[in-house]
Each structure stands twice: as C-alpha cells, then as structure tokens.
C-alpha cells in the first residue's frame, strides 16, 4: 500500500460533477458482470456507465457468461462500454455463476492490458479476473485500485465439494488469496465502514476506504399515496445467506386481519425450496416469487410496496436496500454486517435479531399498523438517509483515487448511537 490516508475522514459536500483533468482510460476487472444479477455486478455496471458518462474511456474484463467472447461494445445506462469477455465455464451447482479459466487468466490479462494501455486498473474481487489483472498491472507499473465485494464465507454456499469440517480451513485460504491480490493495490475500498473493518481484520491490510457503491436516486419513484394493501417486498439473490425462510415464517406469524402479501423479486438456487415452504406455511397466493425482472418492473415493485424487508446476514452494503430507500420505503432489516448503516432503528425502519422470525414479524406489524402520517415520517427519513449514497459522490471519489489524488470518502450518514427500540407496540401486546 503506497497511499497515506485516513479512511475515516468525511467531507460535508461532494465535489462538483466532472473534472477539468484529462479523461482517463480505465480498466475494470470483474469476476461477475451483467447479465449476472447481484450487488457486485450491478456496482461494476453502474460504475462503468457513470465513468463513461463523464467522458472516460472505460473497459471491463469479465467472464463471457452466455455472451460471445472477445471485445465488444455493450451499452449500459445509455453509455457505450468496451467489454472484454473471457472464455468461461459455468459453475453448475449455482444457477448463474460462471468463471474465467484460472490457468489462462494471466495470459489473457496481459494481452488485454497491453492492448488497452489503461491509466488505472480497478478490480472488483480477488477471485480470478481480479488476480489476473492486478498481477499484470503491477508488472507494468499501472496504478491499481481494488474494491472488495466478497466474503469467502458466502462463496462456500455455492459448492458441495468442501465438507463442513474443512470449511474454516478453506475460508482461511480464501482470505490469504485476497490478501495477495489486494496487497498489489495502491488503494483498497469496501462499500461500508463495517465491511472495511471486516476486511482489514481478515486480511491484515489497513487503511481501507469505506466508499458507498452508490445508486442513482433519481431513478426511483417514491409514492406517498395511502396504501390500499399491505405488501412486503424482498429483492435480491434467492440464496441461503439471505435468510428468506425467516421472512416467510415472519409473514406467516402476522395477524390475519392485516391480509399481508409478500413479493420476492430475484432468482437463485433456493427458489423452488422457498416456493414449497411458502405453500407449506399456508401463504398461498399471498406469496409471489417473480424470479428475475427488468429494471422497469423492479422499480414498479419498489413503488407499490409498503415495507422493504432484508433478513440477510451477509450484506457488505445492500444495493437493493438503498434502492428501496430511494423509493421511499421504510425498511426492516437484520441487525447484521452493514445493514445498520442504512437502517437507523426507529428512524427509517427497524432492526431485528438475525434469524428471529417472531421479532421480525413484530417489527413488520408495527409499521403496517402505523397511521399514514407516521408511516410517511419513516418514508421521508429513508429518502434523507439514502441521499448521501448518490452515485455522483462515489464517482467523484473514485476519480480522485484513480489519479492518486488526496481524497476524503463521500459523506455517509452513520447509524445513530442511541439505544435501539427494544419494544414495538406489537411486542408490548405480546
């Protein structure tokens, strides 16, 4: 690590969009990218398109997935990006995961870097592509920025190869690999302070910046008209660490007079199991599993919901939660990892003990029974908190990092230090 900096520094306002410095040629290395649907892929996509909109020449190295290999122009958010698709294999225990071939990654990375001649390489994980582009960029003296979106503990959910008694050993090896790749970087970032602290402890790398992934808040439409139904929404991968089963159990515990509906947006390896579970719990047609949807369908889902629920225990930030907040939704989320940075207990929603379906149900019931004017207070607070995560702040900061300029991380509203609400009215009645 060559930068001297204080990652805890905050600034009161973002820089003005754009820059008077010359445009950069930026190479983003991503082990997952569109058409994959997950937080890391979405961040890389929005980062690439946002940088391109500012006049930078943006290239992305990513697995081919179902797309042709080689360099192609792809359009994201109306911006043209050059994407270098690597020949890749499908990981069949998982519903969409593909990976570039590890024994070819150095050769492929060297070829692409020599053709593109980037000013900076920004890799999004250490898995395969990140390892390759960071290794070859280091050899050539190119500035490197690394962002970690990965918890090895979660990756084990994608494999049935490693038995339980060897998982801690495998996790240790994965974090050691992360240290090797990220140690090559001139600057390392994570989406939140808690994610940065977790990464520092696991790898021994310090001075990690906490920089929000950011979203374009103007893309989402809050609706303050009185609700005609009680609709709970979850958006994300339908995977084990998301603990959607806890949410389904909580909805089943809600009083019948609320006539609550739940909508699960997203796909994943647990989709069929959770559909069966919803039927077994008697939720019937009150539970909707949409699978993957278009961006427009997703925005409509946010707008029509009453509450957003995020029971996951492994969020390094949660872009879906930020999108829900930009849509003016109160949020009930697990008190785990980075979610308390977004959900300020009693302000824009409530936190609950991870895995505690009854407490989640109590929090949901409390919000569903609020008078409209009190519900609107939570909704406005979500809008106020998420404003600090506008992607223009994120782009400003990464531009400075790419140039090796002194930076202060974008201002991010921190969770209140006051004690959490221990009892909601529903809990007191219980």
Automatic annotation (TrEMBL):
InterPro entries: Glyco_trans_1, Glyco_trans_4-like_N, Glycosyltransferase_grp1
Domain Glycosyl transferase family: residue ranges: 226-373
Stretches with biased composition (Basic and acidic residues): 1-13
Record region (Disordered): 1-22
GO BP: any one term: carbohydrate derivative biosynthetic process
Coiled coil: none
Pfam families found in the cross-reference section: Glyco_transf_4 (PF13439), Glycos_transf_1 (PF00534)
Keywords linked to the UniProt accession: Glycosyltransferase, Transferase
Domain annotation Glycosyltransferase subfamily 4-like N-terminal: ranges: 37-218
GO function terms (MF aspect): glycosyltransferase activity
Protein name as it appears in the record: D-inositol 3-phosphate glycosyltransferase
């Amino acid at each position: 690590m060559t930068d001297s900096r204080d990652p805890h520094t905050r600034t009161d306002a973002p820089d003005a969009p754009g820059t008077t410095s010359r445009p950069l040629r930026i190479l983003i290395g991503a082990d997952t990218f569109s058409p994959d649907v997950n937080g890391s892929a979405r961040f890389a996509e929005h980062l690439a398109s946002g940088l391109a909109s500012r006049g930078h020449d943006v290239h992305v190295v990513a697995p081919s997935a179902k797309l042709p290999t080689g360099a192609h122009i792809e359009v994201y958010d109306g911006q043209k990006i050059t994407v270098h698709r690597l020949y890749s294999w499908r990981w069949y225990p998982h519903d969409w995961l593909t990976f570039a071939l590890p024994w070819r990654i150095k050769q492929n990375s060297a070829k692409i870097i020599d053709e593109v001649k980037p000013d900076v390489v920004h890799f999004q994980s250490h898995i395969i592509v990140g390892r390759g582009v960071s290794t070859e960029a280091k050899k050539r003296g190119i500035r490197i920025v690394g962002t970690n979106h990965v918890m090895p503990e979660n990756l084990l959910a994608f494999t049935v190869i490693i038995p339980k008694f060897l998982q801690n050993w495998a996790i240790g090896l994965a974090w050691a690999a992360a240290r090797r790749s990220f140690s090559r970087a001139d600057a390392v970032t994570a989406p939140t302070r808690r994610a940065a602290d977790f990464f520092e402890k696991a790898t021994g790398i310090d001075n990690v910046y906490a920089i929000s992934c950011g979203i374009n808040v103007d893309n989402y439409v809050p609706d303050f008209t009185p609700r005609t139904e009680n609709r709970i929404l979850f958006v994300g991968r339908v995977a084990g660490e998301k603990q959607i089963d806890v949410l389904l159990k909580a909805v089943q515990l809600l009083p019948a007079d609320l006539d609550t509906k739940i909508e699960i947006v997203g796909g994943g390896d647990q989709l069929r199991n959770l559909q069966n579970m919803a039927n077994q719990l008697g939720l019937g047609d009150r539970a909707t599993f949409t699978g993957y949807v278009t961006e427009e369908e997703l925005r409509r889902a946010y707008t029509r919901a009453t509450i957003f629920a995020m029971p996951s225990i492994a969020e390094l930030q949660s872009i879906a939660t930020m999108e829900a907040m930009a849509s003016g939704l109160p949020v009930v989320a697990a008190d785990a990892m980075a979610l308390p940075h977004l959900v300020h207990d009693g302000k824009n929603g409530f936190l609950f003990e991870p895995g505690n379906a009854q407490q989640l149900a109590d929090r949901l019931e409390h919000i569903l029974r609020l008078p409209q004017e009190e519900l609107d207070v939570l909704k406005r607070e979500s809008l106020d908190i998420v404003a600090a995560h506008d992607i223009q702040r994120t782009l400003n900061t990464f531009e400075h990092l790419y140039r090796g300029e002194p930076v202060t991380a974008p201002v991010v509203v921190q969770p209140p230090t006051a004690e959490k609400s221990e009892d909601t009215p529903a809990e007191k009645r219980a």
